[in-house]
Design brief:
- The protein is built from twelve helices and twelve strands.
- The radius of gyration is 21 Å and the shape is globular.
- Helices cover 45% and strands 15% of the residues.
- It has a five-stranded parallel β-sheet with strand order 4-3-5-6-7, with helices on both faces. A five-stranded parallel β-sheet has the order 9-8-10-11-12. The chain has a two-stranded antiparallel ribbon with strand order 1-2.
- The protein folds into two domains: 167 residues, 3-Layer(aba) Sandwich (Rossmann fold), CATH 3.40.50; 154 residues, Rossmann fold (3-Layer(aba) Sandwich).
- The N and C termini lie far apart (53 Å).
């Protein structure tokens, strides 16, 4: 699938490539804009591999009693969005546990009675924690089956050697983001995780992924200017709210804004009900509220109640709702995911992050930063640095 907006005068997110290059923004802009096309490519690749995955799962996962979805940073948030889906598919205890937690406290998550499916997400696969966790789980669990989803064929995780069973999903090269902030890699791995969890329903998902790609095109084409305008407002904090799969989206949205603005725009994320228990105090006149809305009408009752509450007793600078249908709740900007009422919530989550990537990108430019390398003092890197891996021993207190 070829999208016209990627080729006209080489403009990405409405900005000519020469301008983007001079602003050190070309990689981030291109990687955000290419996502609908990358999603379709991931789907097509997966269709070719689905029978192999079915055979792998039927041969290796029948007796699995625990699933851990893991990754570091952005990659960890994928598991937070997908743990419900994996639980429903495999009917086994399912945890979303960052590699950064597993490395320091492995025995809080895995024991020698576990027959484990470890699903690892990693853009580069070169973060030290990625392979360390795979090795730890091999040693501790009585059985460890690996599914690795990564964007980098040269990464250490991709070539990880294990005596256990392993299935690797390598995403298209375009998903291996060159910019600091993960965009294509995040949505690509999230989509791949959805396809893995629904390995028996690829044909049904194909129609839904096409709906997702159309939404992505519409966000870039029809909402890009609005998001650029919002980014020019003098806000210095943002709150992202989402429940269920969208809690992972809220966490990633928060990190994306923080990364791309070099920490100049801070904020928080929470579930709708959780936000009432104290965190609501963060809202002031310098705040942008972002609401990720479910297509589940039961969940909507809680979401709408909270939105009304914020409107009545707080005074945020601006509010944005990303929703599967018009809600008319009085928010300032409503971005409607057409067709979103009839697809999986997790697929909606893939598309819901796109407006926030665009908003964060423009806020980065408006803050005088270079989106491809927004960390002015160089404290954050594309691949984490300085992590030493130690042996935990064989028991909780040993090592």
């Amino acid at each position: 699938m070829i999208f016209f907006y990627l080729s006209i005068c080489m403009r990405y997110l409405g900005i000519e490539s020469k301008v983007l290059e001079s602003s050190a923004a070309i990689h981030t802009a291109r990687e955000i804009a290419q996502q609908p096309e990358v999603w379709i490519e991931i789907l097509e690749d997966f269709k070719e591999k689905s029978n192999n995955l079915k055979s792998f799962i039927s041969s290796n996962c029948v007796d699995i009693n625990k699933i851990i979805l893991t990754g570091a940073g952005t990659s960890a948030f994928i598991g937070r969005s997908l743990k419900g889906m994996f639980y429903r598919t495999f009917n086994a205890e399912t945890l979303s546990a960052p590699t950064t937690d597993l490395v320091t406290h492995p025995f809080d998550f895995v024991n020698n009675q576990d027959k484990l499916l470890l699903v690892s997400f990693a853009r580069s696969g070169n973060s030290p924690e990625s392979t360390a966790v795979a090795e730890l789980c091999d040693k501790i669990a009585s059985k460890c089956v690996h599914i690795i989803i990564t964007c980098n064929a040269q990464g250490a995780l991709y070539s990880f050697e294990t005596k256990s069973s392993k299935f690797t999903v390598l995403l298209p090269e375009a998903s291996n983001d060159q910019s600091l902030a993960m965009t294509s890699s995040y949505t690509g791995m999230l989509l791949a995780g959805i396809l893995v969890a629904n390995y028996q329903n690829t044909a049904i998902l194909e129609k839904q992924v096409n709906v997702l790609a159309k939404f992505g095109i519409e966000v870039i084409s029809n909402y890009g200017d609005d998001l650029a305008d919002i980014s020019s407002k003098p806000f210095d904090r943002v709150v992202f709210l989402g429940s269920g799969p969208f809690y992972g989206t809220a966490r990633e949205a928060h990190l994306k804004m923080l990364e791309l603005t070099g920490g100049k725009v801070a904020g928080t994320m929470d579930s709708y009900l959780g936000f009432r228990h104290g965190p609501k105090a963060i809202v002031n006149e310098n705040t942008v509220m972002v609401y990720f809305l479910s297509n589940n009408r039961y969940v909507n009752k809680y979401e709408i109640d909270l939105i009304k509450s914020i409107r009545e007793d707080s005074n945020p600078m601006w509010s944005i709702a990303i929703a599967p249908r018009p809600f008319n709740t009085g928010v300032d900007t409503e971005i409607v995911f057409k067709g979103g009422t009839n697809i999986l919530e997790e697929l909606m989550a893939v598309g819901y992050i796109l407006p926030i990537q665009i908003l964060s990108f423009h806020k980065s430019l408006n803050s005088g930063l270079a989106p491809d390398k927004p960390s002015v003092n160089g404290v954050i890197h594309r691949v984490v640095q300085g992590v030493k891996i130690y042996s935990p021993g064989r028991t909780v207190n040993e090592g």
